[in-house]
Amino acid sequence: MAVSPRERMVISAALLIRERGAHPTAIGDVLKHSGAPRGSAYHYFPGGRTQLLCEAVDYAGQYLTDRLAEAPSALHALDGLFDTYRQQLRDTDFRAGCPVVAVAVEAGDPDKPEQSAEVIARAGAAFTRWQEVIAERLVDDGVPGAQARALAMLVLSSFEGALVVARATRDLTTLDEVHRQLRSMIEAARDRS
Predict the structure, then answer these.
(1) Using CA atoms in the order 167, 169, 174, 179, what is the torsion angle rounded to 10 degrees?
(2) 8-40: per-residue pLDDT in tens?
(3) Which Pfam families does its entry note (predicted)?
């Protein structure tokens, strides 16, 4: 399936944000990365940088939602999540993090609350959807609903935290340990049901 120039810009924004963060990623960087012509930014994104950030968060959110939803079980979802990001950290010399986290952490400009509110809301929606999908996988595996929702939040929070620590320390040990611990917890929750 062909990707439109507009879609390439959104994908480029998400990729640049995951490695550089939200603030250092300028529209000019997105244009260069995507190969889009200069005037296309304002044509496709009349809302400017804020619109582009929102759409990049939506793209990243949907991308991971689809990957988690396609997994045949909670353990497959967990393993896929950790394996993918472990490889991305290696491939990018520990620069690739989660673009949704980057935007959530960096979007709160107190001088421009009207711009940051929408971006933060999109990040919050992505996190909420990821938790829901992880909980759905757990329920499908037999974990009761309330326990599945709580465990899904633990999985999501632990994963994102481990990813941040791995990037900061330039070491996969934390990511590997959190993966093992979460795997054990999911197995135990599934076996108790």
Answers:
(1) 10
(2) 999 999 999 999 988 888 888 999 999 988 888
(3) TetR_C_13_2
d(CA 116, CA 127): 17
Quickly count: other Cβ atoms within 10 Å of residue 56's Cβ: 29
**What are the structure tokens assigned to 1, written together?**
């399936």
CA 142/CA 119 separation, integer angstroms = 35
Q: Which domains does the chain have, with CATH numbers?
A: 50-192 (1.10.357.10)
For the whole model, what pTM was predicted?
A: 0.91
Q: Give the span between the Cα atoms of 28 and 20, in whole angstroms.
A: 14
Q: How does pLDDT run across 153-162, given as a tens digit for each residue?
A: 999 999 999 9
